[in-house]
Amino acid sequence: MVFLAEHFVRAPQWTWYILFYFFFAGLAGGAYVLGTLLRLSGDPRDEHASKLGYYVALPALVLCPILLTADLGASWSRFWHMLIDVTPGETSPILHYWSPMSTGAWALLIFGVFAFVSAADAWLADRRGAPLLPPAVGRVIGIAGSLFALFIASYTGVLLSVSNQPVWSDTWTLGGLFLASGLSGAAALITLLVRYRSEAVVSLARLRVADGYFSILELVLLVAFFITVALAGEATRIVSWFPLWIVALVGIVASLLGVRRPARAPVTGETAAAPLAIEATVVSVLVLVAVLAMRAAVIFSAQ
Amino acid sequence: MAQSIQAGQSYGFFTDTSVCIGCKACEVACKEWNQLQGDSPAFLADSFDNTGSLDAQNWRHVQFVEHVPDESATTGNGTAWLMMSDVCKHCKHASCMEVCPTGAIIRTEFDTVFIQQDVCNGCRNCIAACPYSVIGMNQQTGTAHKCTLCYDRLQGGLEPACAKACPTQSIQFGPLADLQKAADVRLATLHSQGQTQAQLYGRDESVYGGLNAFFLLMDKPETYGLPNADNARLPSRNDAGGYLAALVTGVLAVVAGLVAFRRRVTR
Prior knowledge:
heterodimer; A: mainly alpha; two-stranded antiparallel ribbon; 9 helices; B: alpha+beta; four-stranded mixed beta sheet; about 15% strand
């Protein structure tokens, strides 16, 4: 029995600001999680790539509230109403757990603190040669922050679904899809940044393996997304954006090809890593473009 | 309404589309009282509807559902037009209110749904949620606007402007229980006259827990752009599935990441 959805809603006009917010939220959350996982790998040489993750998470995250505030238009100075209910006579903090926008606003604030602490700790460690926080404390902060990072990278998809919009509200896949693609994009971004920190090259091959795993998840969810939306009778809305979907698929396939190739390079010297770096650069750029294209296709298919 | 309007009681509209003549007096009265300047006129060819849709400037909208046949209909058999004065439904379980992150959307002492303009910050989550396409953004104020069910008039003991102006009593205002009784009587009358397609929309709880502004329709809800009872679902229905998929993905991704990073590179 196929349930055909009917939609008579107006589009909320969440466009460019929100697209780039989704992009940077995915990268910030993904990079923070990867930074933590690399630190937990047990190999101290991964510390360099881990720091790259923390370094990139902070600026990506800082862009998020700026983009969201800009999207409010003439009411931009009321951005803090997301956190404080200013109903006359009843002013108090507001958290509606059933509204992803409400939980997301708080999660952004809390994750911002974690992202700052972890990036600052990494920076101080680089400056002084030893981290400010004891390693165990840094690890605990990384794990706690990663929970919020995972939320930030995924809740944006759930937010779209918790609506009555065509496509968005016809599927349960968007939260997982955005998370998998955010992690994949973050792995690609860290790969690109290795050129500025050559010691991190030891982690490169395994970052690509991780990227491949994330892309498998993303591919599975993408298929589920198409099926759920088609079953609701809204397939034409997503098909009309097929160029963007093809760009997204190219990125996924590129990173999947990366995982098939055995980690061949002896990762001790920079010369051995050079040919790998060119290929990795191409794959990473394709993946990052795909992360943006997939979100654009999802956003614009309903509006 | 003759009797006084009291806080703590449920009020609403009963819009009887069977007697709407499409005069748009409701639209004019609404704009006049609420000081809405209206959208700049658009030419909507081939229709008597030049309002378009409910939005920040149009809080009442007379829909013209036009089935003008190529050949003239036989006498007494013409259903060339269905007319319906559309408005915010003031749902018992309101999608807009559910997703609003700022607490701007409240239920008033008259049991109506109201957007507090000094609290709203223009995030547009309510627009994404409203299944009736009622709410619109005012770019000047940067806030969301819709019918207030003339909250200010009710506080002053006056009935809403649209109901006051309606010349055919297509728009009736009053305590919800009274309106529901009147609607049941009207429906029975129409059915006894052979108008079996007449039906009430939002009179009972099947649509968003019941609508404070409910309708008598002369065709199925979809014809008027209203979701039927099966499709009238709240945004929060997708919370559990969406978060569960994200959680499963997150667990799998973390495990995958740990596996990938733990794999030692052979020297």
